[in-house]
Design a protein that fits this description.
The complex is a heterodimer. Chain A is an alpha/beta fold. Chain A contains ten helices and nine strands. Chain B has helices at residues 2-26, 31-39, 41-51, 56-79, 85-106, 115-120, 142-160, 162-170, 172-177, 182-204, 206-223, 227-252, 256-278, 283-286, and strands spanning 130-132, 138-141. In chain B, helix 2 packs parallel to helix 5 (85-106). Classes of the chains: A alpha/beta, B mainly alpha. Chain B: The chain crosses the membrane at residues 6-26, 33-51, 57-77, 89-109, 142-162, 174-198, 204-223, 230-249, 255-275.
């Protein structure tokens, strides 16, 4: 079930990526619609983060190409924003919450330039969107996991991009942060932003996303949640982990397409 | 006057190294300075054999080339060879240093160089090697001008590209996603480390350069959580080490470079104990776990 769309915001064509000759992604070919909340779902080692990194130009591609807004990555860098995994950085780095969020403006600032008043306002606005304005002078080494994730989201928001790529933003965060992130994603979706999220908690998939990509080295499915989030396709994605899958299909029956408030 | 020149030389080296050392520590590449200061030996010997002269510029070029080659080799082994970064550093510099030792011993008759001089330097001789103008005026030691110029270049480099250095040290992948090349800034920083190391060790010796690259920055890391303050504190600690080291050496009539490095180590020890007694900040060094609030 791979549904292609007209006028895609992202087009991935025949993409393959390998680490040291070991393929991680095989022939991924998909198009994504604009303005949706998109989840990338799949088991550990399925290449979810790799797909995101390939799109962000952080990894060499073995074959294929990626177009964003019909252009190669280099021409649209200011339209896209990346939220890496929280564990990818050293949180003991000597800097403050405010300074980390200001990094979101560095792409626009360029060499030599100091942040302007408008940059500072954008940073404060981004901090308040994630409920961290009270922590702006806090050293980043003194943040909890959930707060670290919010700082990363605020930094991405400060870029004022149209497309956001988030690598596991829900991993290891507290319930309050998870709720805050979901609220933020809904808000961004209302503002016609496209958000692509690597996610691994199957229980919440149907509640969070409008469109999903099922991935296990190969592309299994890409389509609206109603059509792509089915037990058969999940079975195909997750392979033999049957006990898990029966639980999941029960869950799907129970909370399939709940009302979005 | 010669006391003043020795302290000034030590302080200039300490400040240049301290500033760069802050970024090396935050990038977990503290040992690169050690590697460069050893790996330049074959460059010096080859420059000497090729040109037949022992003037500083030739040496600087030979050593500088090898220094940059070392950083490229380390990066290559780490990223393309998938070797751990500490292993790449270890393999690269021991091999190049050994090559230098072989070159010196093979051409022992022709080369008026020895590795002891490269390693320990002789800061006490700095005031003797002065620049004398055509008019016959003595305008002070040559090393002060060289190291002063290096210090100004380092300050200029870091203040102009502070944001880029900071973001590529903290989160290189995110920097790349913004279009800031992590590789470019890494090589530029390493070139500065290489250049500073080479310019400094001629007067103060490799051991003191390595000590100044790491100890003041590590001390400052313990004392603050702000990168700008960390750089300033590292400079102050460096000056303190140079002054303290000089008077320590005078009082015990020992090696000046050795005493300066020792004082830098002692200051680190004092800061460590101070931080451990006053707060739990030091937990971040040992456990790396963020203190949750």
């Amino acid at each position: 079930m791979i549904q292609q769309v007209e006028n895609p915001i992202i087009e991935i064509h025949d993409l393959s990526v390998s680490y040291e000759k070991k393929p991680v992604l095989w022939d991924v070919d998909l198009t994504l619609p604009a303005g949706k909340l998109i989840g990338i779902i799949g088991p550990n080692g399925a290449g979810k983060s790799t797909l995101l990194k390939a799109v962000m130009g952080l990894l060499p591609l073995s074959s294929g190409y990626i177009n964003i807004l019909d252009k190669p990555l280099k021409e649209v860098r200011d339209k896209i924003s990346y939220v890496p995994q929280r564990e990818s950085v050293d949180w003991d780095f000597p800097t403050s919450v405010y300074d980390v969020v200001m990094m979101g403006r560095y792409g626009q600032l360029g060499l030599l330039k100091r942040p302007k008043k408008s940059d500072k306002e954008i940073v404060m606005d981004s901090l308040s969107k994630v409920g961290m304005e009270g922590f702006k002078d806090r050293q980043i080494s003194q943040l909890s996991g959930g707060q670290q994730q919010r700082v990363f989201l605020a930094r991405a928001l400060a870029q004022q991009a149209d497309i956001y790529f988030m690598d596991e933003p829900f991993a290891g965060v507290d319930a309050a942060t998870e709720k805050a992130i979901v609220e933020l994603l809904r808000q961004m979706s209302k503002e016609k932003k496209t958000v692509i999220v690597v996610h691994h908690d199957l229980q919440s998939v149907a509640r969070y996303f409008d469109w999903i990509i099922l991935l296990n080295m190969r592309l299994v499915a890409s389509g609206p949640i109603e059509e792509a989030f089915t037990p058969e396709l999940l079975q195909e994605t997750y392979g033999g982990k049957l006990t898990l899958l029966t639980e999941i299909s029960d869950l799907i029956q129970k909370n399939r397409f709940p009302n979005r408030e | 006057m010669s006391n003043f020149y020795i302290i000034l030389t030590g302080s200039l080296v300490a400040m240049s190294c301290g500033i760069l050392g802050c970024f090396l520590i935050l990038r977990k590449m503290a040992m690169v300075g050690d590697a460069i200061s050893h790996a330049v030996l074959p460059g010096i010997v080859l420059a000497f054999l090729w040109s037949g002269s022992r003037d500083s510029l030739t040496m600087l070029i030979g050593a500088g080339t090898l220094g940059i080659l070392t950083t490229f080799l380390i990066e290559f082994l780490t990223h393309k060879g998938k070797l751990q970064s500490d292993a790449s550093i270890g393999v690269t510099f021991t091999w190049l240093f050994a090559l230098g030792v072989i070159l010196i011993s093979a051409f022992a008759g022709q080369v008026d160089l020895d590795q002891e001089c490269v390693l320990y330097g002789e800061i006490a001789l700095v005031p003797l090697d002065t620049i004398i103008l055509a008019s016959g005026t003595d305008i002070g030691p040559y090393a002060i001008y060289l190291l002063g110029a290096v210090f100004l270049m380092v300050v200029l480099f870091v203040s102009l590209s502070f944001n880029q250095l900071k973001i590529t040290s903290f989160d290189p992948q995110y920097a790349i996603s913004l279009g800031i090349s992590a590789t470019f800034w890494n090589y530029l920083l390493m070139s500065f480390v290489s250049f500073t190391t080479v310019a400094s060790f001629e007067s103060v010796g490799a051991i003191l350069v390595v000590a100044f690259l790491i100890a003041p920055a590590a001390t400052a890391y313990l004392l603050t959580h702000d990168l700008k303050k960390m750089i300033i504190i590292a400079c102050l600690i460096g000056i303190l080490s140079a002054v303290g080291g000089h008077y320590l050496a005078m009082s015990i009539n020992g090696s000046i470079a050795g005493a300066m490095a020792s004082v830098a180590g002692i200051l680190f020890g004092i800061a460590f104990v101070y931080v451990k007694l006053t707060s739990k900040k030091v937990a971040k060094l040992t456990s790396g776990v963020a203190v949750s609030t």
